[in-house]
């Protein structure tokens, strides 16, 4: 299976982590997004949306990381522990995945990316959305060890990739005590965490050059 990815992106690193959890071996093809390789015509033929990660699984092409995550588990998972088949349990996992996409990752990206990519000043209104998103996550985790139920799921993987990406730019989680506890535990139990660490090191190095 071909995996077009960028180790700089939490979305790509989430795929690598799930790959480890499932025992998959990817043919990893790194796309340098800083050099805009994702915009090249040859990649557009594979993915006209120009986004990474993208997989090509025996001729089947798919992008959007959370769609890839659930596809891989449904096709290659030996059980349903990472993505429960029970409709209500799965609904909660899906809700957390969509929360990550539309609220958490979006808030963090909207606030931090302009500061590093365009050297824009920090926007206090955008930071309020970061605080709101982290507050929601903290509420989800009240009395919970995992973000979607009583065991580690793909939702933990996705949100772990998101949160870890922003810890390197000094995202302060200290007042979100449930998030802190979850994060500390997730880094210990997440399959493939070492894959995430490699990408984080590369991302941190890039961020340092942008300061």
Number of helices: 8
Unreliable stretches (pLDDT < 50, length at least 5) are: none
Number of distinct beta strands: 4
User: What is the residue-mean pLDDT, rounded to a whole number?
Assistant: 95
**How helical, in percent, are the residues?**
55-70%
Strand order of the largest sheet: 2-1-3-4
**SSE topology string:** EHEHEEHHHHHH
Shape summary: globular
Please identify the structural class as seen in this structure. alpha+beta
What can be said about the biggest beta sheet?
Answer: 4 strands, mixed
Strand percent estimate: 5-15%
Rg, alpha carbons: 17 Å
Set down the secondary structure blueprint:
Blueprint (H helix, E strand, L loop, with lengths): L1 E4 L4 H13 L4 E4 L10 H4 L9 E4 L2 E4 L1 H12 L10 H31 L6 H17 L13 H14 L9 H13 L3 H18 L1
Parallel strand pairs: 1-2
Antiparallel strand pairs: 1-3, 3-4
Helix pairs in contact: 1-3, 1-6, 1-8, 4-5, 4-6
């Amino acid at each position: 299976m071909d995996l077009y990815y960028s180790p700089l992106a939490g979305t790509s690193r989430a795929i690598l982590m799930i790959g480890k959890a499932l025992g998959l071996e990817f043919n990893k093809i790194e796309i340098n997004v800083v050099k805009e390789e994702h915009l090249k015509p040859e990649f557009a033929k594979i993915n006209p949306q120009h986004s990474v990660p993208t997989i090509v699984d025996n001729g089947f092409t798919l992008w959007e990381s959370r769609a890839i995550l659930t596809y891989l588990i449904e096709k290659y998972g030996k059980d349903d522990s990472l993505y429960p088949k029970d409709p209500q349990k799965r609904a909660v996992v899906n809700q957390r995945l969509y929360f990550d996409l539309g609220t958490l990752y979006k808030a963090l990206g909207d606030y931090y990316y302009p500061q590093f990519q365009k050297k824009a000043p920090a926007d206090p209104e955008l930071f309020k959305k970061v605080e709101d998103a982290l507050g929601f996550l903290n509420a989800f985790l009240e009395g919970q060890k995992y973000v979607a139920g009583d065991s580690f799921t793909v939702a933990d993987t996705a949100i772990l990739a998101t949160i870890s990406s922003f810890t390197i730019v000094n995202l302060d989680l200290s007042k979100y005590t449930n998030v802190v506890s979850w994060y500390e535990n997730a880094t210990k139990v997440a399959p493939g965490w070492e894959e995430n660490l490699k990408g984080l090191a590369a991302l941190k190095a890039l961020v340092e050059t942008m300061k």
